[in-house]
Amino acid sequence: MAEEQKPQGLSRRGFLKSAGLAAAASGLLVGCGPKAAPEEAAETQAPPVAEAPEGIAKPSFEVSPPPIPAEQIKETLSADVVVVGAGVAGLMAALGAAETGAKVIVLEKSATFNARGGHNAALGSKLQKADGIEYDKCKVACDLARWSGNKADQRLIMLWANNVNQTIDLLIDMAEKDGIVVTTWGNDMPDATWPEYKTVHMFGGMDEKVVAGMVEKAAKEKGVDFHYEMPAAQLLREPGGRVTGVVAGADGSYVQFNAGKGVILCTGDYGNNPEMIARYCPKAADIDFNVYAPAVNTGDGHMMGLWVGAAMQEDTPHTPMVHNLGAPPMASHPFLRVNINAQRYENEDVPIPYMANSIQLQPKNTSWTIFDSTWEEDVPHLGMGFSRSPVVSDNTRKGLEDALTKGALAFRVDTLDELAAKIGVPAEALKATVARYNELADKGVDEDFGKNGEMLTRIDTPPFIAVKNTLALLVVLGGFNCNTKLQVLDTEGNVIPGLYAAGNTVGNFFANDYPVIAPGLSHSRALVFGRLAGQSAVA
């Protein structure tokens, strides 16, 4: 497997032209360069920040701040490895480095570690093997590459696939030691039209803090030194040479953390930085509901890397993870779906990210799922998939009833005219759309969009129900160009010595949409790449 690589594609200028971003969110970093040079050629001068073309304002995050004055640095601490960020990627990076005997320091902006989500993917963990499940990692990698339109770096995908089972097994061992129950979840549909693998591992249920807590505990047992409420401010890089440390802390009272072997950036995404969203992931700017919990995820690591010459993934816009989150139950099931003009607009049998894409194409980003009182009888005919079960549970019934009682995102009325008034669509158009849908259901053939005929269930038995499809941005998946050692590359494709990345500071792993064919992939990649980055930094 190649060690260094520089993804090829559109230049920054070409990207800006095609994306049509507003001038205020534009500007150039040093552009995409030629293919990667060998590691021994990496000791080059950090490239200067390119001047923005005339008439185009440079985003503020691209402007390198002046060095922090020495008199404001009140203390200096040293370690072999300094990890910036204590999410699951940073925690695993610290553990991975400490397992080798290295001295490790972790810096975190928050008062404690950050964790988001409880799904963690594997392809053949000890629990999966016990259930007779073990997937062909190359087939899964090919599916992930195909989902990305082959825009993702297959070397990074294979890096994850080759190491994921070992990492998840390590976590399972930790959980067993601490008496934490680990369960698996998912749909085993590798050959379906929309393939999905039963990959999810949940530790202590869906409690997102369990894995982070386990890894933090293990890292502390290995001697890792944690500095919470210690926001990183600037990387230290020798002219044309190594990244040697990080300056962190508050204005006027900074601490310099020297890193003898390497600094690992694990600062999460930039989902709470509107300027970076506009620059790298404009599609996410249309999503009003941002549920990504850590307010501290403002792209700090991305910015610090850019200031020392790191190259951001730029050949395509970065990938937003958008789900139909916060919607009432049944919103993601393939019942009839209409826009604010009461028009049906798609084959509703699509996974959540693709569903989100089509909703963003509708007027006012608005869509409603329509069904009737026989919905429980209809559900078994609607297939299964991510966030979609052919079995109606008591929790599903309760969730829908709660939403109907609140009456903001779900309505139940006796006539289609009343339903149209509740959801703000033309009544005659809604009745015509439902009549056409019922006609197709009677035929058992979707002549309009090609949906599986069995999923065409009639809407004719009052009361009628509408639930709103609400789009939520969970995270933005895009970061630096990295090689398979998780070393960060500069704009010429050379390694920046001493600088590593993991989690959502690593680019080129996702493209277009988050691939729900392997649920839990995002957290899993963070865990795997964190551990590998820690090991690489020491090596």
Describe the 3D structure.
This protein is α/β, with parallel strands linked by helices and 539 residues long. The chain has helices at residues 12-19, 88-98, 126-130, 137-147, 154-177, 209-221, 274-280, 300-307, 352-360, 375-378, 394-406, 416-423, 427-443, 521-538, and strands at 73-84, 104-107, 120-121, 182-185, 200-203, 225-227, 232-237, 243-250, 253-265, 289-290, 319-323, 336-338, 368-372, 410-413, 464-468, 472-477, 487-489, 495-501. Strand 7 and strand 8 (243-250) form a beta hairpin. Helix 2 (88-98) runs parallel beside helix 6 (209-221), helix 2 (88-98) runs parallel beside helix 14 (521-538) and helix 4 crosses helix 5.
Structural class: alpha/beta
What number is the mean pLDDT? 89
Oligomer: single chain
**In percent, how much strand structure appears in the residues?**
15-25%
Helix segment count?
A: 14
Main β-sheet description: 8 strands, mixed
User: Can you count the beta strands?
Assistant: 18
Computed Rg: 25 Å
Helix content: 25-40%
Distance between the termini: 17 Å
Residue runs with pLDDT of under 50 for 5 or more positions: 1-53
Shape: elongated
